[in-house]
Inverse folding.
């Protein structure tokens, strides 16, 4: 059961990584990176490392995604004002 | 009025510097006694392996986990550890990761906290978090969002505090607890347009909790002749009041990381909202 679930998680992580690399939109890249972090934290949980899983879920999936989105918003504003 | 404030500030600064100097010199006067620490008194026999070959042999023969193994030292009795009963252990933390991260490798954790502090101060240096003209051009968050984020913040804040207070019992600790608190504060930013936390409060809180970590280390240096040594009784394994100073240090780390990351998100968001 755990093997099946972790296989699904690994497939999810690889798919998220491919989306993050090959996507044209920055926003979907950032969100799929958050998804990768969530999958990795689930994998850590199955590998008997709940401490690392909690840290990864809080920082990787929560805070760093939000900070990436804020920074992206800021950069895009600068670009549009330069183009105009 | 201004003079009084500056005089009070100066007196306070001299007071703090004096206390730090006294601690510093006390540490130096106590330093020669550090040689007097007998490792055999504080370390269980599993840690007193003679060399790698011996340990490998013991693992190969299967005598390492055997109750009838030949003890390296006869003066330490073999007692199996039972949860909720064993008392006065070498390090009473039920969470093994915490006992390594905070107790045996406490100095590494101090360095880790310093790295995070430097990263946060770099962000603060670049983005001051000053709020310039905030034009309310977008649709403000709805009432449901406002109330919902407030309720969620209470629950998230409580969960973060639980994670770092129970760091020595359950998985978690200071860093994830602080990150959870900071993500709760991020939710408050989403809920209300133009929300700004008390920046000075965050800074003071962060500095005080960072100082608390070093002061706990110096107390260990004075009391136990080693920096960041456990100077409190370890208690019964599994109790809330156990594992000595691990809970204290994790509370300090949790408050520090939480206020630091909140200040970083505050700097980034309020700088984004300009114009």
């Amino acid at each position: 059961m755990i093997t099946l679930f972790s296989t699904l998680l690994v497939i999810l992580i690889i798919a998220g990584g491919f989306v993050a690399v090959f996507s044209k939109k920055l926003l979907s890249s950032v969100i799929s990176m958050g998804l990768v972090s969530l999958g990795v934290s689930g994998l850590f949980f199955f590998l008997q490392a709940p401490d690392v899983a909690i840290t990864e879920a809080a920082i990787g999936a929560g805070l760093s995604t939000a900070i990436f989105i804020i920074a992206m918003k800021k950069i895009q504003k600068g670009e549009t004002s330069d183009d105009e | 009025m201004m003079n009084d404030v500056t005089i009070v500030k100066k007196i306070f600064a001299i007071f703090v510097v004096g206390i730090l100097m006294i601690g510093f010199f006390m540490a130096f006067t106590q330093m020669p006694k550090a040689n007097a620490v007998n490792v055999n008194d504080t370390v269980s026999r599993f840690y007193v392996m003679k060399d790698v070959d011996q340990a490998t042999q013991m693992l190969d023969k299967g005598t390492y986990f055997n109750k009838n193994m030949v003890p390296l030292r006869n003066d330490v009795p073999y007692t199996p550890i039972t949860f909720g009963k064993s008392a006065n252990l070498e390090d009473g933390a039920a969470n093994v990761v915490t006992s390594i991260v905070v107790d045996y490798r406490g100095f590494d954790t101090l360095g880790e906290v310093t790295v995070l502090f430097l990263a946060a101060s770099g962000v603060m240096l670049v983005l001051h978090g000053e709020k310039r003209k905030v034009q309310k051009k977008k649709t403000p968050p709805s009432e449901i969002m406002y109330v919902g984020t407030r309720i969620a913040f209470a629950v998230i804040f409580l969960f973060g505090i639980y994670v770092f207070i129970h760091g020595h019992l359950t998985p978690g600790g200071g860093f994830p607890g602080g990150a959870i608190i900071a993500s709760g504060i991020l939710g408050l930013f989403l809920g209300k347009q133009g929300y700004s936390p008390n920046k000075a409060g965050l800074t003071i809180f962060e500095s005080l909790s960072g100082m608390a970590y070093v002061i706990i280390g110096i107390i260990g240096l004075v009391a136990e002749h080693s920096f960041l040594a456990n100077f409190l009784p370890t208690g019964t394994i599994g109790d809330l009041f156990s594992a000595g100073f691990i809970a204290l240090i994790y509370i300090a780390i949790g408050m520090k990381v939480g206020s630091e990351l909140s200040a970083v998100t505050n700097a980034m968001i309020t700088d984004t909202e300009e114009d």
The mean pLDDT of chain A is 84.
